[in-house]
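User: I'm putting together a teaching handout on how multi-component assemblies are represented. Below are the sequence lines for each component of a complex, exactly as they appear in our records. Could you produce the 3D structure of the whole assembly as structure tokens, so the students can see both representations side by side? Please keep the chain order the same as the input.
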Amino acid sequence: MKARLTKLPREFYLRPTLQVARDLIGKILIFNDNKKIMSARLVEVEAYIGRDDPACHAFVGKTERNEVMFGTGGFSYVYFIYGMYNCLNVVTERDGFPAAVLIRGAEPLGGIESMKRNYKNPGKNLLTNGPGKLCKAFGLTREHNGLDLTGGQLYLADDGKRVEKIECSVRIGIKKGVDKKWRFFDPASPYISKIIR
DNA sequence: TGTTGGATCAACT
DNA sequence: GTTGATCCAACAC
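Assistant: Of course. Below is the structure of the complete assembly, with chains in the same order as your input.
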């Protein structure tokens, strides 16, 4: 726990999306909301690559909503879905290439009390084993769209810990492009949203 | 200007 | 296993 955190540099996000997605497993997501700092270790992500991915928001072209995905990597893309939930994405690759990594699941590390307060409905359910829940726990909304992940408010870091095994599978909850195995997760974690191969 | 459907979650049966 | 909650953006007219 005393391991030194290294904030991921811009270059990390500018690499091929699938590589970034795989490397994000085991990294730490940190969010500073002016009061408390919350952090969680990523255990599940999915890649969305505009060019040949019909499930990606950017597939149909650039719009006001997905604008950030077309920009330079290393920015947040938060969108609202199903009228109730936000999902957090990390934009990847260079300017003009639309791609992002959806954060689906994470293990809470710090600021758990803040997460519970944000979530309001503690219950026996896990706080962060799903994209919508994760955003609710962190208090992320569309207001956090387009944040620079190399800044101080929202960013990702490496604590030097290596995940023993990373598995991949088809993505979840989409209806197009389901043949692509672009979901990466840590099979040893209880915080993955679902087990599929 | 109106309609429709979505990268979800939780509460039911 | 199925369904309701509920907002925004894309598309058709």
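A couple of points students might notice: Helices of chain A lie at 10-13, 17-24, 112-119, 131-138. The first helix of chain A runs from residue 10 to 13.
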